[in-house]
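Write out the 3D structure for:
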Amino acid sequence: MRTLKDALNVGVAIHSRLVMPPMVTEASVGGEISETTLAYYKKMAANKHFDLFIIEHSYVAEDGKASLKQMSLADDEKIVGHKKLVAAIKSVRPDAAVFLQLNHAGIKTRGDMIGKDPMGPSVRPWDKMCRAMTFDDMARVKADFVTAGLRAKAAGYDGAELHVAHGYLLNQFLSPLTNFRTDDYGKDRMKYPLEVFLAMKEALGDFPLAVRIGGIETIEGGTTVDDGVRAAKAFDKAGAALLDMTGGMTGYNRPGHKEAGWFKDLSRAVKDETAAPVLVTGGITTYEEAEQLLAEGAADLFGIGRAFLKDPDWETDKL
């Protein structure tokens, strides 16, 4: 019988199906890792239910920051702080796996924050304050992701996660709600996110690379479960260590759904079609709910987000 304590491989060995998913703390100062950040993750790492900790998104370029207090890995000087963060977690849990999520905000930033107009796959008809990316822009951002991945590896992380969800740049290419291009990158909305992933894989070698996929949207004309499965299959074939399934442009919530694992229709469909371990998040608040989702075959791994954020000692009485 499978249990939440099974051994799994996400590019590195872990021994729990429970995962701390990336959750923004907004504790960075100028992109640097703060003492507040170090103390927070050290506290969370003490909960032995979790063997995999996916650290909140770091921006890969200055024009890709999502907020003023977001963590950065956009230059070599930031490696030192990330080394401290990995060391803080490993001082409490040397056996844990620590991945870092890497991201570019695209049009989900502000011009006053980055000093220029935000850029995305297309100009949105209702938003004249952004511009469509040129091929040169796309080549530069792809290189930024590769370099940030190499920095994450140098900082001592056990792996990285590419953010293709929640309305950020790579998700903007994936979604028909924001990608109106008429070139090959519009005809095949997976083309650019997959190119970035493959470039990172080539540069990182055997360093595990997960991907968070915004596979479903709640607005008419957005991505569907079938779209999410197609995207997951492409990343799986490309060598993803982990498929982290969630919402797209409409975010990590799902209106009208309050059940545990509210993206489980997506994660189950992906699990049926792929080989890499599948992670689902959304509304899982108890150990028993995660066990039930496992029994249903909803996913291989289960992210405990808001409940864990609210209580760092989440369910430790069951250890």
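The two ends are 19 Å apart (CA to CA).
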